[in-house]
Amino acid sequence: MEKNHVIPQKQEGLFALGVKIKLGDITTEKARVIAHLIKKYAANELRFSLRQNLVLRHIKEAFLPFFYQELTQLGLTDLGFNSTSDITACPGTDTCNLGIASSTGMAVELERVLTKEYPKYLENKDLTIKISGCMNACGQHNMAHIGFQGMSIKTKEKLVVPAVQILLGGGVLGNGKGRFADKIIKLPSKRSPQALRIILDDFDTHRINGESFLDYYDKKGKLHFYTLLIPLSSTTNLNEEDFIDWGNEERYVQAVGVGECAGTVIDLVTTLMLDTEEKISFAKTSFKNGKYADAIYHSYSAFVNGAKALLISEKKKTNTKAEILSQFDETFVNSQKIHLGSDFKSLVYQIKSNEPSAHFAESYSSQAVAFLEMIKKYRKKELQRAT
Amino acid sequence: MEKNHVIPQKQEGLFALGVKIKLGDITTEKARVIAHLIKKYAANELRFSLRQNLVLRHIKEAFLPFFYQELTQLGLTDLGFNSTSDITACPGTDTCNLGIASSTGMAVELERVLTKEYPKYLENKDLTIKISGCMNACGQHNMAHIGFQGMSIKTKEKLVVPAVQILLGGGVLGNGKGRFADKIIKLPSKRSPQALRIILDDFDTHRINGESFLDYYDKKGKLHFYTLLIPLSSTTNLNEEDFIDWGNEERYVQAVGVGECAGTVIDLVTTLMLDTEEKISFAKTSFKNGKYADAIYHSYSAFVNGAKALLISEKKKTNTKAEILSQFDETFVNSQKIHLGSDFKSLVYQIKSNEPSAHFAESYSSQAVAFLEMIKKYRKKELQRAT
Amino acid sequence: MKSFRTEIENPIVEKDIIELEKKIHLYQGGQLDEERFRSLRLARGIYGQRQLGVQMIRIKLPYGKVTGNQLLRICDVADEYSTGKLHITTRQDIQIHHVSLDRTPELWAQLERDDLTLREACGNTVRNVTASALAGVDKEEPFDVTPYADAVFRFFLRNPICQEMGRKFKISFSASDKDTALSYIHDLGFIPKIKEGSRGFKVMLGGGLGSQPRHADVLFEFLPCFKLIPVIESVLRVFDRYGERAKRQKARMKFLIKKIGLDAFITQIEQEQKALSVQRFDINPTPFEKEINVNPNTVPPHGDVDSKKFTLWKKIM
Amino acid sequence: MKSFRTEIENPIVEKDIIELEKKIHLYQGGQLDEERFRSLRLARGIYGQRQLGVQMIRIKLPYGKVTGNQLLRICDVADEYSTGKLHITTRQDIQIHHVSLDRTPELWAQLERDDLTLREACGNTVRNVTASALAGVDKEEPFDVTPYADAVFRFFLRNPICQEMGRKFKISFSASDKDTALSYIHDLGFIPKIKEGSRGFKVMLGGGLGSQPRHADVLFEFLPCFKLIPVIESVLRVFDRYGERAKRQKARMKFLIKKIGLDAFITQIEQEQKALSVQRFDINPTPFEKEINVNPNTVPPHGDVDSKKFTLWKKIM
């Protein structure tokens, strides 16, 4: 019955509305608009669904265009309610102590792949994808047709990579019956989109007269899918990307109770840029108070943090302040991507060859301001090119 | 110079006072008394020492008896300031995220052994004992003459036991020189008192004309001490005690980032006794409100919690409520330690054979009250016998 | 601890909130064992978060239902105490993050003013009672399960038999045989049936996901409605008594059934009959079947709609 | 966030405390990255604790000294915000536990009223400057190191060169050659010396305990007092620039010296001369040498003393 977003009710002439909420996250701003809508036009009631979505009810047919208009303004009329692209994922490493690898980051990526490359799965209600950040299965990965479980693997050189266990063959059969998914193979988690493509392509090409995924899976057997995915599982050909978990910038660290564990997804590059601005304002205040050595040091930190921001967005190593200076020259100045009029290292190391005089403090801080403007422009250009 | 607790100052006629604070923990109540004392009689100043003690200063000789009297009332004139019995220990599993095994619990035990069996070490300022709860050495274990580092070992049967690494041969030599202790051997941590006895007995018996511990250690060499302690290191003859860390009641669980990790030392038995009392008061309230089934269930929980409290203090297994009932009969009723007039199981299981009437609710709760009195008396008798 | 004025009419709820404030104060005074404080706050929906020093709060919404005012109240609380973002869980609760422990009593008091609770959203208690999102409007449903889910939620909230169990306990109601509420992975899953004209449920027992998933067994093909609450009470009493409490990984009811077997478990349930607080519990669905007042009739003005997209979105077979 | 009235005279301190309150508010609103909030609060003595939802607070006491009023203030704060227990650390700080994150600004403001700080007690900053507990009264000391430890503490508190270093930095002053302040396990350890009648220090560099302990090297056999602060500043600048920042286990200065060698490290220090904020810094010990006023002369009445125990306790060789 639930063909798409509008579901006819047993009460003649009334309809229920399915509203897809990505990862179950909705801002209070949008939720308030919906609250007023249901108070006036939908019998003052809505139900949160077991797929982390919204279901409105008791809506007269004449009101459907109005609701569609209102929901579209909230950006809530994406297709795919309860479809394959409506991926269930637990908060994982975002806010849960037990999260080993990011489930929300992976869910966003898989949904992008489905929407761009497999649009017909936006209407497929029979095949579900679910992701959990650890084995406790709050993301229900082991009852999905295609399930992903966050974990980590150690390479031969003892390096830790965010990984995922792929599971297949779970699902609800109805009237109290259901299946649990089988564990198929472990892969570096950055290869999960490729794994999904292989599974869907194989199913779409070899499926006969519309057989269900579960029938196809039982017919082909576990080994068939294991062999399909084996090429992705080797950890000898990892690249830099594989060491960074979905939705993160910095290298993956499995935070296992190491004192205070890390783990939010706030964009580090933007934070560093803000930090650079803050250092420049500190330099100005110190200068005003006649503390020239302090002012110079703040400008020095501004140079270093600004350079670190750009280097991180290029996934470069930034282990020490000294290394940041040479890496910046290597990555941006020698390659003519950014023109400073001199190399970055000598620009910054003026601090070593000048006494902390008012004169030097002033020129050093204006150079820092100019540098910040330059990297802001560079970053804006980069972001436009990328999206 | 620092022979004992009273140290003559370079200022003629004035003395500094060393006050030993066990594990560096002092209540605000005692600290306030000391604050008023120094304001009036000790130049309004004291210094916390690098051995987690107090050092008062600028005290005239005539005031020494007065200070001794005041400090004794605070229980702060135990001998051993800066001696071997003045053991340095980090908070370890009490409040630190990184603590693997309890350092404070072990320090209290080793100090008890020294005070009772090796009193002369209360005046020995040359040999130091230090304990850390993990390898980060906040307890400075690897610069002690005798050091202990908390860790855990897995037995063949994959069971985890709180363990300790013994280190020997560290110490301060003066004028910027010092030594780091060598790792000698790993033992279940409940055997550290025995290890200390073996080391001290060996040193006391074989030491020639007052040679220092470090000279004795260098002369004998690491292997000598390894062979001395080998018998304690086997994990095939562990007893129930070895699975419970110092200062704890429940079996040791190495809390490695398992969601919210555990770790306080508040006495579980007393908490359970308080809990039993609380359940009995809940039963009374429910009865007054005519909720007889609720009242019965609260009395039922009082029986179970009370029994659990006694079983824990006897280190018995309490995995399920049902098991608690049979264990209590086995441990206390069949052995005639406690007389109930019937076995505990049938007393408690009246809940199964009675409808939730007012009559039954009343008799069941008065039996629970009587049971609580009985176990309180039993526990009091036990505690008197133990201390 | 700043004590706030609670304008909560319901004395039981008020007592709950003031007790939470007292226990937080004791805990911060080091006089309350972490273990006990943890079970107390978990039973009041306060869960530790990965980021240190802040908490996740789970708001319990029986069968996922909110009215307009309740949703507005949740938004106010999320803006005031949290990050202005609501997270919908796979069991129809709302979670908000980064909440300060000290302010949780205040937060709870505000939610209660619109009859919203944090009580037993987490911890070893009966968690949210879920139901298919189309319950009450589903063309294929024999009857609306909402009144029955509501009665179960109210009967076991604060019920002493399920406040300190060995582990959490999950109950679901599916609207139809399509079983969208996933009865086969619940401790107790109910599917509505009509037999000789009277209402009842197919009862699934002892299912669960986690690292060792277990398919639920069929306890009853048809259980009449007045038996619903008594059977749930007897299952809870058995689980509370025989469930594992030390080894957390073995503490869910599915492990108990695996250990003693389904038959032995059923015998235990039968032996609980006498002790039950009620032998039958009649649930009256009529308050939930009142006229649906969809006022007003006139559609408010709205911009013109992209017809191609609208049809695709609307696409009713 | 309840904002409290801060009666702090010192505007810099007041700004610090209000900024902490702002950052806590941002963090609880999910607008501040956990990593950055962590380094901010660590630099203000607020450390995560094993028990969830509560913090450990470290109060920084330079060379371990407190006056009567300061100790009374610490006790008031420990009763009001913590468990009424003080923990003395092996680096002469006081730690209190189970503190609520929200109340840390208030707590700090109260401490500052008796000139006590939480500033840079934890985090990648210059930690407490320690000194032997007998400094100033030790028969064997060449001179009292207290004024020098105090000057170092004040000069580097809030100094921009050591607010965001790669790792913590520990400085100690021993009273005499007995080296009870353990200079050989400090980043910089000072031992007082007199040479041709003028005061100076033996300087130990790059020591440390932890899982890979390192014995400090001798940087100077004798460094005149007016050079103390400039040398420390140059060492901090070199550590801040070349110290490892990603791999925490390799970030202490001892690893940097192991990597580039002592000579290269010394060359770097020399190259910093020009950039230093001061070329010489004269420290005036006289304010610390005022008359010791031990009033009154009359001993207050007290119970009679158990002479045997008293003598044992008193036993002066």
Short structural summary:
Chain A has 387 residues and is α+β, with helices and mostly antiparallel strands. In chain A, 42% of the residues lie in helices and 16% in strands.
Strand order of the largest sheet of chain A: 6-7-8-9-12
**What spatial order of strands do you see in the largest sheet of chain C?**
6-7-8-9-10
Task: Provide the helix percentage of chain C.
Answer: 25-40%
List low-pLDDT spans of chain A.
Answer: 256-266
Secondary-structure-based class of chain C equals: alpha+beta
Describe this structure in words.
The complex is a heterotetramer, with two copies of chain A (387 residues) and two copies of chain C (317 residues). By secondary structure, chain A is an alpha+beta fold. Chain A contains twelve helices and twelve strands. Chain A has a five-stranded mixed β-sheet with strand order 6-7-8-9-12. In chain A, helix 3 links the parallel strand 6 and strand 7. In chain A, helix 7 packs antiparallel against helix 12. The longest helix of chain A is centred in the last third of the chain and has 29 residues. Chain A is globular, with a radius of gyration of 26 Å. About 3% of the residues of chain A have low confidence. Chain C is globular, with a radius of gyration of 21 Å. The N and C termini of chain C lie far apart (59 Å). The mean pLDDT of chain C is 90. In chain C, the strands form two sheets. In chain C, strands 6-7-8-9-10 form a five-stranded mixed β-sheet, covered by helices on one side. Chain C has a four-stranded antiparallel β-sheet with strand order 1-2-5-4. Chain C is α+β, with helices and mostly antiparallel strands and 317 residues long. In chain C, helix 6 crosses helix 8. The chains are: A alpha+beta (387), C alpha+beta (317). Chains in contact: A-B, A-C, A-D, B-C, B-D, C-D. At the B-C interface, helix 7, helix 8 and helix 11 of B face helix 2 and helix 6 of C.
